[in-house]
Amino acid sequence: MTASAEATASKTVSVRDIYLPPERKKVAGGGVPHVSAKNFSIYYGEFEAVKKVSADIPSKYVTAIIGPSGCGKSTFLRSINRMNDLIPNSHTTGSLMFDGQDVYSKFTDEVLLRKKIGMVFQKPNPFPKSIFDNIAYGPRLHGIRDRKTLADIVEKSLRKAALWDEVCDRLDKNALGMSGGQQQRLCFARTLAVEPEILLLDEPTSALDPRATAKIEDLIQELRGSYTIMIVTHNMQQASRVSDNTMFFYEGTLVEFAPTAQLFTNPKNSMTEDYITGRFS
Ligand SMILES: Nc1ncnc2c1ncn2[C@@H]1O[C@H](COP(=O)(O)OP(=O)(O)O)[C@@H](O)[C@H]1O
Ligand SMILES: [Mg+2]
Q1: From the CA of 35, how far away is ligand 2's center (Å)?
Q2: Residue 76 lies in a domain
Q3: Structural domain count, the chain
């Protein structure tokens, strides 16, 4: 990256700079930062995969993360609920705050953190269990045993994930028998069942056909305003359709973070422009 790109990129992107859609200002809580990174770096051994990122992610908005393969999108996303901890040799520097609390403090309860910050991955990964047991898994882990309470949670979560009508008569069937798109909505439902505040979505539609993709995009629109959503996507149309704000990463650096409409029509950085116009991928 050029020195000037780095200089532009290292400027802190404040939530005040982020566009708040006027019609959603009230419901969305006025764009309070939910996650704040400050000079936040993530390493694999000596390799700095994410470089001194400073950014505020507004609460209850959809933030898209775009950039070429290997630029650190997944690494950054996984760091938010400390999934990177599971990778030997990885460590962080700088700070990452969630709701004003230091995510990387030694006092952080990781199980609770991952309950509040759920994740859906590229490939649907239901457990080889019944649909019911997939959704009830998290609530059971957190101590809920009562069958009626669990049944209510299962129904509510499947409804939120726009899957209830398709599966309500076969909750006892193995989840692996569902279509790919249904499995991915099941993964959303499983995440929603523990009442998270943040949903981290890592290319949630890249393994799905266009119809299933459209359903997931509709679902994101439904959930928008109720959850803080961060979505990594390679699909620029998808980023423009579903997100309020977009982060563009390049070689581990956050190059630009702006309202989605602005980033795609009037990027401030020439590298963002080169990327969105397809000059490199
Ligand atoms: N578990 C790992 N161990 C070592 N290096 C990794 C690991 N995961 C990712 N990387 C490296 O970190 C960089 C960022 O990867 P990643 O976050 O997966 O990028 P993206 O999601 O943007 O494609 C890449 O250079 C990748 O090779
Ligand atoms: Mg990735």
Answers
A1: 20
A2: yes
A3: 1
Strand order in the sheet with 33-44: 47-58, 33-44, 90-98, 101-102
- pLDDT, tens digit (0-9, with 9 covering 90-100), for 11-29: 555 554 555 554 444 333 4
Residue 74 in contact with ligand 1 by CB distance below 6 A: yes
Residues 117, 194 contacting (CB under 8 angstroms): no
Query: 121 C-alpha to center of ligand 1: Å?
Result: 15
Contact (CB, 8 A) for 80 and 98: yes
Report the alpha-carbon distance of residue 95 to residue 142 in Å, rounded.
28
* CB-ligand 1 contact for 43 (6 Å cutoff): no
Tell whether 281 is covered by a domain: no
Q: Is 49 in the pocket of ligand 1 (CB under 6 A)?
A: yes
- Tell me what pLDDT residue 19 has: 54
CATH number, domain at 73? 3.40.50.300
Residue 233 CB less than 6 A away from ligand 1? no
Residue 81 in domain:
yes
C-alpha 75 – ligand 1 centre gap (Å): 6
Q: Do residues 55 and 79 make contact, with C-beta atoms less than 8 angstroms apart?
A: no
145-166 pLDDT tens trace: 999 999 999 999 999 999 999 9
> Is 69's C-beta closer than 6 angstroms to any atom of ligand 1?
yes
Domain that holds residue 247: 3-276
Structural domain contains residue 236: yes
The residue to which tokens 């193995």 are assigned: 174
Residue in 89, 47, 64 with CA at minimum distance from that of residue 258: 64
Q: What is the pTM for the complete model shown?
A: 0.90
Q: What six digits make up the tokens of 23? A: 């019609």
Q: Which residue's alpha carbon is at the smallest distance from atom 20 of ligand 1?
A: 70
The number of the ligand nearest the C-alpha atom of 202 reads 2
